[in-house]
Amino acid sequence: MLKVSVYRYNPETDKEPYMKDYQVDTQGKDLMVLDVLELLKETDPSLAIRRSCREGVCGSDGMNINGKNGLACVTPLSEAAPNGAPLVIRPLPGLPVVRDLVIDMTLFYKQYEKIKPYLINDTPAPAIERLQSPEERAHLDGLYECILCACCSTACPSFWWNPDRFIGPSGLLQAYRFLIDSRDTATEERLADLDDPFSVFRCHGIQACVAVCPKGLNPTKAIGHIRNMLLSRAA
Amino acid sequence: MVTQVTSFGRSGLSDWLLQRFTAVILLAYFVFIVGFMICNPAMSFDTWKGLFDTTWMAAFTSLTLFAVVAHAWIGLWSVSTDYMTTRTMGDKATVIRMTFQATYSLILFYYLVWGFKILWS
Ligand code: SF4
Ligand code: SF4
Ligand code: FES
Fold first, then answer.
1. Nearest-CA residue of chain B relative to A165?
2. pLDDT tens-digit profile of A175-210?
3. Which residues are bridge partners to A89 per DSSP?
4. Is B1 a member of any domain?
5. What is the nearest CA distance from A198 to chain B, expressed in angstroms?
6. How far is it, in rounded angstroms, from Cα A182 to Cα A162?
7. Index of the ligand 3 atom closest to the CA of residue A74
8. What is the percent of chain B with per-residue pLDDT over 90, rounded to a whole number?
9. Does residue B53 belong to any structural domain of this protein?
10. How many independent structural domains does chain B possess?
11. Contact (CB<8Å) B15/A197
């Protein structure tokens, strides 16, 4: 039996959030945290969670697992709570809770929207497609893989304090993905939009984002690249 | 909602650069002073005064004073716009933050004048 403690909050019936304890029979298997929650849901269907792909692709089941943000579906018990230690599950921190483990990601998506996450190119479209050399394409590695799970941004203190003004690690990783794309011609406008005291410069380089990204991406490095681009633009 | 009107250079990049630049000056000054004390173990008031009577030392110290003011302003501005916001404190946040910023800008200004008075008079 595994002890699982889960954050519960239903704004319609609960005055305030509370932690609820469950016992889940894992049959001694090294399950993924999501499997444990599914088992738990069989006994208590009132628990609200978001999930879809169950293989680390859709990014919908980001949550705080024993103090660390991650995707429940790709986090094994042996990693999150080794040696039968209790499991403590909370919603991703810093954003409003809709119910139980489901958070309101509006601010997160607003920041994503701000960086214009699409290619901008004013030159006449070629007959077939805009080509990229393998080297140019390689620049996108480590950036395009982001699944917008929000584990990084909700682990970032700067994003907690100013989620309406600091783009956050996830959005900035994406910003760099378009800044460095050889097919995009809006580099100057993109950089001009980022050069205020909040959007990029609230990053203090603590790398809390890097530590939690389930895809092994490095937003801090991307932010450093953006800073260098802003520097060479101003110099 | 926090605005950027009170930031030092209005641009994130200039604040960031200035913060790094002033940090280097502060470090250089600190290293120099400590080095000077180590090289003059039996320091008398005259050695100390002699050092500060030189024009270059007065200039170096003045520069450091400016650096302290800029560095502290940018640093505390960041801190106050992190923690003294409507998100953390509710509606009264703006008044608290502005009061805080006004108070420490006065303190910083006072230190600057005080430092200059000691140095150049
Ligand atoms: S490195 Fe920057 S973006 Fe990443 S967690 Fe720290 S402050 Fe946030
Ligand atoms: S960078 Fe990583 S942690 Fe952040 S949203 Fe993308 S996949 Fe998730
Ligand atoms: S359920 Fe899709 S990432 Fe976990």
1. B2
2. 999 999 999 999 999 999 999 999 999 999 999 999
3. A6, A65
4. no
5. 7
6. 31
7. 4
8. 82
9. yes
10. 1
11. yes
Residue B95 lies in a domain: yes
pLDDT of B15 reads 92
Domain range spanning residue B60? 7-120
Rounded Cα gap, residues A54 and A174, in angstroms: 24
A201/B15 CB distance under 8 A: yes
Please tell me the predicted confidence (pLDDT) of residue A105.
97
Stretch A92-103: mean pLDDT, rounded?
97
Q: For A48-144, where are the alpha helices, taking DSSP H only?
A: 77-80, 106-114, 134-138
Residue B12: closest CA among chain A residues belongs to which residue? A197
CA atoms within 13 A on the CB side of B81: 24
Q: What is the DSSP string of A5-63?
A: EEEE--TTT-SS-EEEEEEE--TT---BHHHHHHHHHHH-TT-----SSSSSSS---EE
Q: Looking at the CA of residue A214, tell me the nearest atom of ligand 3.
A: 3
What is the least distance, in Å, from the CA of A101 to any CA of chain B? Answer: 21
pTM: 0.91
State the distance from the centre of ligand 2 to the C-alpha of A59, rounded, in angstroms. Answer: 8
Residue B15 lies in a domain: yes
Residue in A163, A164, A199 nearest the CB of B12: A199
A108-134 pLDDT tens trace: 999 999 999 999 999 999 999 999 999
- Write down the ipTM of this complex: 0.83
Q: How many contacts, defined by CB atoms under 8 Å, are there between A and B?
A: 46
Domains defined along chain A, listed by start: 2-103 (3.10.20.30), 106-234 (1.10.1060.10)
Interchain CB distance below 8 Å, A197 and B83: no
Taking only the tens place, the pLDDT of each residue in B11-48 is: 899 999 999 999 999 999 999 999 999 999 988 999 99
d(CA A182, CA A168): 24
Residue B88: which CATH number?
Answer: 1.20.1300.10
